[in-house]
Amino acid sequence: MGKVDGSYLGSMIDILSILSKPDALSIFILAQDGIPSEIESHSKIGITQKQYYTRLHQLVDSGLITKTTTKKQRGLQKQYIHSGLGNMIYKNYVQNLPHTIKDSKELEILEVLKSSKKFDDAEITKIASKIGIHEKTTTTNTKDDTFFIAAKYNEMSQIIIDAINDATKEIILASRFSDESIIGAMIKKAQRGVSVTVLADESMVKNYNKNEKIKNDKNKKERIQIVSDPFYPAKIKRKYGNIPFCILIVDQKFVGWELVDSSDVTKFDKAMFCYNFMLAKDMIETFSGWWKLAREESPIVQKMSKKT
């Protein structure tokens, strides 16, 4: 019999409670593509302004959505999007739920065939395919699908370093924090031929060695690149942007994501990790969306270029 860890029961109740409300669920679904932080956003959803902000605050407080700034054609725009936790819940449960409900009759037929004990699994599969039923199977309670949480920064950092050290093909990282140990581990892997892609938060880069004094000569741009970019000049594909939460994907199977504390988004709160191919695929899609909006040049170098 399944048993729920009591320390997470309260959070589970809060999440299920808020998503059980139709207006909150509508906002949560729309946040997948981003909801602009505008006065008239509530009218586009079809609810009152009071309803909108009440549910919006509840979704933020529950850790399901977060407010971020993204670069649009008209400039920077603030919007509400899924947090790491919200993204996982949406893609693993909410997004598939309509299809599961639609297929419930088919699942009932399969259960009847199984419970009759007249057919083995191979025969059931053959019968199901003939009448147009395709059983959807998921792996549960396996080691690979086990989620684990890092509640402290040093725990999170060590898990990431271990995962990087185990990488054989590809490392994808979107980071809001500068950690010399993680940076060093990634540079070593890049030097050994592992594909490394990094999306660095602009505020992290701006703060990296911000007190470093740069000599003003013909090589100034190169020097600024060195002190403002912790990954320079390693063979790492990198861009810069506004990152709502950290993401790590290793070899398209190991996934890590940051759970942001809505009361103080600048500080590390928690991170979750697991081995899951489908979740890795979903997180790569999220990362790719951020990558398209990111800039090629370091914000420090870009600022300097405007002055010269």
Q: Could you characterize the architecture of this molecule?
A:
With 308 residues, this protein is of the alpha+beta class. The protein has three domains: 9-84, Orthogonal Bundle (Arc Repressor Mutant, subunit A), CATH 1.10.10.10; 96-130, no CATH class; 143-307, Endonuclease, Chain A (2-Layer Sandwich). Helix content is 48%, strand content 18%. It has helices at 6-19, 22-30, 41-45, 49-61, 84-94, 97-102, 104-115, 121-130, 153-166, 180-191, 202-207, 220-228, 277-293, 299-307; strands at residues 35-36, 65-72, 75-82, 148-150, 170-175, 195-201, 237-241, 247-250, 254-259, 270-275. Strand 5 (170-175), helix 10 (180-191) and strand 6 form a beta-alpha-beta unit. The radius of gyration is 23 Å and the shape is globular.
Name of the CATH first level of the largest domain: Alpha Beta
Q: Spans of 5+ residues with little confidence (pLDDT < 50)? A: 135-143, 211-215
Helix/strand-derived category reads: alpha+beta
Distance between the termini: 68 Å
What's the pLDDT, averaged over the residues? 77
Q: Given the C-alpha coordinates, what overall shape results?
A: globular
How is the main sheet built?
Answer: 7 strands, mixed
- Order of helices and strands, N to C? HHEHHEEHHHHEHEHEHHEEEEHH
CATH architecture call of the largest domain: 2-Layer Sandwich
Number of domains: 3
- The CATH topology of the largest domain is Endonuclease, Chain A
- The helical percent reads 40-55%
Strand order of the largest sheet: 4-10-9-8-5-6-7
Overall radius of gyration: 23 Å
- Beta-strand proportion: 15-25%
Secondary structure tally, helices: 14
